User: Which sequence fits this backbone?
């Protein structure tokens, strides 16, 4: 978006400046800004108007509008107007990864470059060597700032940190800016004549170089660290701290670092569930003594398993059948012992008669049609069907379900079901 708008703006302005009559008597800068704005809007429609593209168009459009109105182009007010416009049209985008990470990066970059504008201006006046050094320093600083800003959301959304993005971007960003994107613009201009292949072939060379760089850097030892996912309150603390740091201009702005540190620290303070059960009971995860999540199977519910493992900071799945110190199984059930409690994971009705008398917690993939005298908690097939997936914390016997997370909202049809047995409780939740 920036390249399209900049190419139209500077190209047309340079062309019009060749005429002394136009350059001295007419506002050719504003004419170029108007044409660039129209071209950027056409590019927005061409690319499908995704949220990052909407943000880029709104910011580029406001920059060009500032040129038309003789106002300052780049500022945090510009970012705020772009965010407000997107949220007014699509308010649900606030919860999307693209909105959060895109605006986090832009807010941080604008704040940093506003603060360092004077220093950049002093350096820009030197020769070509200084300008090249300034550009590479800008790429490095941009990567560092954007990586730190989006890294907090990457922790929350994906549970991973990339360590070598700076090294990759020092090559990928110049190649993209000076080779791939210009050839892309030329290909667009040649398409009406059927000659776009002349530009797409060299453009492909650049894309191969960038993807090869990404693949090689990702393969370096220690390129990515997997960490447990950040809890919601940690993300909120870090986001508020980051905004405080970026928006204020005086020294108290640095108090925002406290919020960021508190958000990052929440990763280690957050207690993950000890037992996870999918909505149909076909996949169950239990926590080993070292915190590793072990799965009942590595062949089913692979998408759900990937989500569980990602939020636990794990890269690969391991079956609990390989951990005899954690789980003992037979053909009808498995017994899981953790934190002084006995948990029966039932997969066949024949196991209920015995396990209901000796287990503290019964989680059954089949219906439990009679009481379990010793069980403090019973979750059976009907509970899973009504309430969706379950998460259980053994210390406090806390249970969370999918329907509890959905809550009372206009688009969720609800009914309430409560039931109990003689000695324990059953899972209770709002049911869609």
Assistant:
């Amino acid at each position: 978006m920036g390249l399209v708008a900049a190419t139209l703006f500077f190209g047309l302005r340079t062309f019009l400046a060749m005429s002394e009559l136009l350059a001295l008597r007419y506002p050719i800068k504003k004419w170029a800004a108007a044409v660039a704005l129209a071209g950027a809007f056409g590019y927005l429609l061409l690319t499908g108007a995704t949220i990052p593209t909407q943000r880029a168009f709104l910011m580029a459009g406001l920059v060009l509008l500032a040129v038309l109105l003789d106002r300052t182009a780049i500022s945090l007010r510009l970012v705020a107007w772009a965010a407000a416009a997107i949220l007014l049209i699509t308010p649900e985008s606030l919860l999307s990864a693209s909105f959060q990470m895109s605006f986090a990066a832009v807010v941080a970059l604008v704040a940093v470059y506003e603060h360092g504008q004077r220093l950049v201006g002093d350096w820009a006046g030197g020769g070509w060597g200084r300008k090249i050094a300034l550009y590479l320093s800008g790429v490095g600083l941009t990567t560092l700032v954007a990586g730190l800003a989006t890294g907090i959301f990457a922790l929350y959304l994906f549970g991973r940190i990339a360590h070598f993005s700076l090294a990759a971007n020092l090559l990928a960003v110049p190649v993209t800016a000076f080779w791939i994107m210009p050839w892309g613009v030329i290909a667009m201009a040649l398409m009406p004549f059927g000659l776009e292949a002349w530009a797409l072939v060299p453009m492909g060379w650049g894309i191969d170089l960038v993807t090869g760089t990404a693949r090689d850097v990702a393969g370096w030892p220690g390129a990515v660290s997997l960490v447990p996912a950040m809890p919601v309150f940690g993300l909120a603390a870090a986001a508020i701290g980051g905004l405080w740091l970026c928006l204020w201009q005086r020294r108290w702005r640095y108090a925002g670092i406290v919020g960021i540190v508190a958000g990052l620290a929440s990763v280690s303070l957050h207690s993950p569930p000890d037992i996870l059960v999918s909505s149909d009971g076909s996949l169950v995860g239990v926590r080993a003594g070292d915190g590793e999540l072990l799965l009942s199977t590595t062949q089913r519910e692979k998408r759900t398993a990937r989500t569980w493992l990602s939020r636990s900071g794990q890269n690969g799945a391991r079956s609990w059948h390989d951990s005899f110190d954690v789980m003992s199984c037979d053909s009808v059930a498995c017994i899981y012992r953790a934190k002084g409690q006995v948990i029966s994971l039932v997969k066949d009705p024949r196991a209920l008669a015995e396990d209901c008398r000796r287990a503290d917690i019964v989680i059954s993939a089949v219906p439990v049609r009679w009481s379990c005298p010793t069980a403090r908690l019973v979750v059976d097939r009907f509970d899973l069907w009504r309430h969706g997936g379950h998460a259980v914390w053994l210390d406090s016997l806390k249970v969370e379900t999918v329907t509890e997370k959905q809550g009372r909202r206009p688009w969720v049809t609800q009914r309430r079901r409560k039931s109990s047995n003689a000695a324990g409780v059953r899972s209770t939740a709002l049911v869609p």
